[in-house]
Amino acid sequence: MNKVPDKWKAVSFQSCYDSLADYIVELGLKLEFWKKVVVIGADKLPSFWLGALFDPKSYLTGLI
Hints:
Shape: globular
Number of helices: 3
Structural class: mainly alpha
Number of domains: 1
Largest sheet: none
Strand content: under 5%
Order of helices and strands: HHH
Number of strands: 0
Helix content: 40-55%
């Protein structure tokens, strides 16, 4: 019962968590980060949380 549905996994960010509760917590942390980006501005943040991105590997590849 406490498992991330397969349909969600198919269209969601990669997560190391299988439990639905942990997945929701991770999603909440990502949303809080993106709220900060919108309110403060990405250029004013001292650091950028790569884990908040949908696919961090693609972002890093784009920087090369």
